[in-house]
Each structure stands twice: as structure tokens, then as C-alpha cells.
Amino acid sequence: MSPEARLLPLRELQLRFVAALYESSDAVVGAQIMEGAPSVGARLGVYRNNLREGFIGALAISYPVVEQLVGAAFFRQTALDFQLHHPSRSGDLSDAGALFPEFLRSRYADSDLAWLPDIAALEWALECVALAPEPAGIDPSALAGIPADRYEDLEFTPNPATRLVESRFPVVRIWQTNQPGAAPEQVNLDAGADHLLVRRRGRELEFVHLSPADFTFARMLSRGTTLGLATDASLAIDPGFDLARSLRTLILAGAFVRVALPNYRRNP
Amino acid sequence: MTTHASKSVTNPRPVPARAGIGLRAGHFSAVIDNPPDVGWFEVHSENHFAPAGAAHDALEAVRADYPLSLHGVGLSLGGTDPIDLRHVERLAQAIERYQPTLVSEHLCWSMAGGRHTNDLLPVPYTREALRHVSRRVSQAQELLGRRLLIENVSSYLQFRDADFTEWEFLASLAQSSGCGILLDVNNVYVSARNHGFDAREYFSALPRGSVGEIHLAGHSVRELEGRTLLVDTHDARVCEDVWALYAAAIARFGRVPTLIEWDTGLPSLDVLVDEAQRADHVAGGTLAAAA
Questions:
Q1: Is residue A194 pLDDT above 80, yes or no?
Q2: Which of A9, A39, A132 sits opposite B225 (nearest CB)?
Q3: In angstroms, rounded to a whole number, what is the distance separating the alpha carbons of residues B250 and B246?
Q4: Is A234 a residue whose pLDDT tops 60?
Q5: Looking at residue A4, what is its pLDDT?
Q6: What is the per-residue pLDDT for B10?
Q7: How far is the C-alpha of A35 from the C-alpha of B225, rounded, in Å?
Q8: In whole angstroms, what is the distance from residue B106 CA to residue B6 CA?
Q9: Where are the alpha helices (DSSP H) in A86-226?
Q10: Alpha-carbon distance A14 to A84, whole Å?
Q11: Chain B partners of A92 at a C-beta cutoff of 8 Å?
Q12: Measured by CB atoms within 10 angstroms of the end CB, which terminus of chain B is less buried, N or C?
């Protein structure tokens, strides 16, 4: 930049400054900064360090079990790679880890660490559930008065204080053995799959283990699929699927806060 | 849990001139088990956006016994991306839920082009930036329906071609937007040392009635390329130079509500209470000497 050139407009200056921090390039913004000792590069380095350490620290708060399982050095490097692909988009840094399970899945789904993304998904589900409002779930009587021939059109609204998590690995066991104070234990990765409804009741976080068919049923209903279509999908997984028993299990687990019949009008 | 039937029935209690302390997760149980003898508490707004969980439970308990301040770190008021209306909404919900007496943000920016740094980045002190930040502070105050206090940040670099000093910029911002000033005495000291200006000149440029809150904290001294750079780390006791500046600030601005901040390497709660008591002692002594 020639000496007489003026400072860039604010918008351009800020875009370049963020690029200088994320892409570790002093050149794009260096000429905008007053020189002095220490150098412009060293001064930018203070902000670059804040950017990295703040992000790693926030991710470690959301994913303590992942960090414990892979070790601090591996976790740091993975967090920095994740930050480059998925920079924080929120003024609340605790939001930054939302895509971390999917990032780990894209890297490790076909590796020896295939269980790691599922542990991350479980940790994120627990955090979401811990911080969510907890409206009362519906009870089985909510279905009374709905004509039997209209059941297949019913739609359910999931409870924000619940999440559904599935893994072909025993993720609950892995998570539990890595809690503070837990006795070290060798977990057999082939010990079986987990199909979970994670929920909060008051201050308690709980795991409700579901059958594969019940899990599919719950997931489809939570995504707004009608009861009829969700039942068909669950029967395809397990011909012995028992609609009445499964629905009662999910309702008693507090999975839903609302059930509705679209376009249904009661006759006067 | 307290509920608020309408905004008119609950008047938040005033923040006393006595010193308060920043409340962080590491002290939740200590504060609830043995409520300390301090004037008030301040929390980072973003740490309490969720309407449930340990942070929510702790704040509900603490605000029943103490006046409260919400101090935001993520609104990017100096930024040129559109203001994040979801963030504003979450802040508004936290204000409605916890009924703080004071709400503050920073004279800084944090994101551009959708990438957030979650840091307090310095604005250039230009006429263009002053117009922009003033509009943004006014916009935030209108959206939240209340006056904000805006805090000066520590900085480690200065942009070229400034039209104003930082203190001229801050005083103009307060005048044009109607915001109050949260004067962080440690940040003034850190920036004064890093950029070679006189902290007392900074104070004398701010109108006497404009400062609604004072922050005190510790910083780190880093050696970079054989030169000293001070970094605002909130990981130590307030240094002696900053205590002296605090007395100068009290002499100019009066007994303004003062807060002790500590974020990294949190010590036992007693250390923060001790710092708050020293702040009360310094402020009381300063005003007694002036009387």
C-alpha cells in the first residue's frame, strides 16, 4: 500500500481482519495497522491465539468425554480442523459445537474411531436436553375421544427436553465409564447397539433404552410423520411391532408435548 | 421460582455503590451455600441464554438475594454484518427472565462475513465507524427497550488514520446514542500501556455523569519480540497501578457501582470477595479525602 492511501472502509477492513485471523495471513490487513514494536504480526498473533484457544475451550466444555477418550493433543488438533470448516456463527460460543458430531462422522465413520462421532452425538444431545425448557408431556388420555379410524392421521410434537440418539456401539456404557469418578473399565465395542431417548426430568438426565423398531417409530413421529406412516415403517423393521404398547412407552417417557389431528373438526 | 406477571410489577433493585463480583460457573455452589458479603453480581449474558440447566438454577437463586447485571460479550455492536436478531431475542428473553438492573455490551466488533471470532475486536476510531457504531447502539437500545452501558475494551493494535482518540470516540458515542459508559479501568490501563497514552487524560475526557459502572480485573504481561505487551486475561488480582487509577476514576466519576472480574484460573471465592472489599476501601478513602 502506498503511504498516502487511506484506511479501508469499515466493512472491507473487518472482512480482511477476520480473514487474517482465520487464514493466518498478516498480509491482507497488515497495512491497515499502525506499526510499532512488537510487530503487527505479533499483535495480530494475540487475537489469533484468542480465536483458537477460546474455540478449543468451548468445544471441550461441550465434549468432555470425547476429549478424555482421544486425549488433549488429538482433541486440540481436531477442534482446530473443525473450526476451519465450521467457524463459529453465533455470539454464544457454546453453540459452536452443534456440527461437531457430523464433522467427526465425515472423518471417522469408516475408521477404528467409528464410535467417536456417536459419543459426540450423545454428548451434544445431553447438553441440548440439559438446557432446554421442559414442558409437560402429553399423557395417554390425550388420545381418548379421537375416533379410531382417524388414528393414522395423528401428528406428534416432540418434547424439547428429549433427544433421540442411536449407535451401533454401546455408547451409554462408554459415556458412563468416562464420567468423573467412574472406575476405569474395558468396554467391548461389540457389546451391542444403543437406541436411546435422552431426556431431562427436573435436574436429572436419563437414558430410556428403546427397541430398534420403537426408536424408528419415535424418530419418525418426532419429525412430523403421521402415526400411520410411522407404524408402517416400524412394522417393516419388526413384523411384531406393537403400536399400542410402543406409543404408550413413548408417551410415558415424556417424548411428546402435543398430539393433533390435522384438519380435524369435531361434530357438534 | 419467581414469575413476572407483567413488567410493571417488578422493579429491579438498584445496584449499590458497593463493589460486586462477576459470577462464574466455578463459584455457583460456593455462592449459594455461603452467600458472600458483596453488593451485587454480574454474569455474562450469553452464559444464561438457556432457560434451564445449572447456570439458570444458580442465577435464579442468586438474583433472589442480590442485584444483578447482565454483561454481553457477543452482540458485535461495532460489526458491519446485520445485527443478529436471534441473539438480540435471546438477550431480550434473558432480560425478561432475570430482570437485571444493568445491561451492558462492549465498544467492539466480533464477526464479519458470517464468521464469528467470539472476541472483543477493536474498532477503528474514524468518523465512519462512529456513525456506524452509534446507529447500532441506538438500534440495540430500541430493540431491547432500555439504555445500555458500553464498555471500552483492551486492545493490542491500533488502526491507522484515526480521526479520534478512543476517549473522544467513546464520549461522542455516549452523546450521540444516549448510552452510558461502563468504564473498565484495567482495560484503559492495558491499552494506555500498549499504545502509550495517558489514562488520566482518558478519564478527564469522559463527562462526569456518563459512567454508570466500573470494571476492575487483572491482566497478563507478555514479552513479545523483546517488548512488553499487556493482555487482558482476567486471571490475576488487580495490579497496584490499576488501583491507583481506580481512585482517580472515583474522584472524577463519584461512587459508581464497581465490579471485580475474574475468568481464567478462577481462585477461591474468598479472593474475589477480598478484592471487592479493597475496592470499597479505595473508593471510600478517596471520597473521604476529597470531602
A1: yes
A2: A39
A3: 6
A4: yes
A5: 47
A6: 54
A7: 14
A8: 29
A9: 100-108, 116-131, 171-177, 212-222
A10: 18
A11: 46, 49, 74, 87, 90
A12: C
Q: Is the pLDDT of residue A267 over 80?
A: no
Residue B213: domain span: 20-290
CA distance A197 to chain B (A): 19
Whether B2 is in a domain gets the answer no
Per-block mean pLDDT, blocks of 10 residues, chain B (291 long): 39 86 98 97 98 96 97 98 98 98 98 98 98 98 98 98 98 98 98 97 96 98 96 97 98 97 97 98 95 83
B227 to chain A, any CB pair closer than 8 A? The answer is yes
User: pLDDT tens across A118-174, in order?
Assistant: 999 999 999 999 999 989 899 888 888 888 889 999 999 999 999 999 999 999 999
Distance of residue A41 Cα from the nearest chain B Cα, in angstroms: 10
In a domain, B6, yes or no: no
Q: Is B133 on the interface with A (CB under 8 A)?
A: no
- CATH of residue B177's domain is 3.20.20.150
Q: What is the pLDDT of residues A38-70, one digit of tens each?
A: 999 999 999 999 999 999 999 999 999 999 999
pTM of the model: 0.94
pLDDT at position A86, please? 98
A6, A54, A133: residue with CB nearest B161: A6
Query: How are beta strands B102-106 and B115-121 bridged, if at all?
Result: unpaired
Chain B residue with CA closest to A52: the answer is B117
Of B56, B129, B227, the CB nearest to A38: B227
Which residues of chain B neighbour A33 with C-beta distances below 8 Å? 157-160
Residue B73 maps to a domain: yes
| CATH number 3.90.930 is the correct assignment for the domain at A133-268 | yes
Query: Contact A7/B231, CB-based, under 8 Å?
Result: no
Q: What percent of chain A has pLDDT over 90?
A: 86
The full set of domain ranges for chain A reads: 1-114, 133-268
The total of structural domains in chain B comes to: 1
Mean pLDDT, range A2-14, rounded to an integer: 83
Q: Please give the pLDDT value at position B138.
A: 98
Q: Is residue B67 part of a domain?
A: yes
**Residue A99 CB neighbours (<10 A):** 15
Q: Return the sign of the alpha-carbon dihedral for residues A23, A28, A34, A36.
A: positive
Contact between chains at B229 and A161 (C-beta distance less than 8 A): no
How close is the nearest chain A Cα to the Cα of B265, in Å? 13
Using the CB atoms, write b or e for B208-235: b if 16+ within 10 Å: eebbbbbbbbbbeeeebeeeebbbbbbb
Work out the minimum CA distance from B155 to partner chain A, whole angstroms.
Answer: 9
Q: Do B118 and A93 make contact, defined as CB atoms within 8 angstroms?
A: yes
Q: Is A28 strand, coil or helix?
A: helix
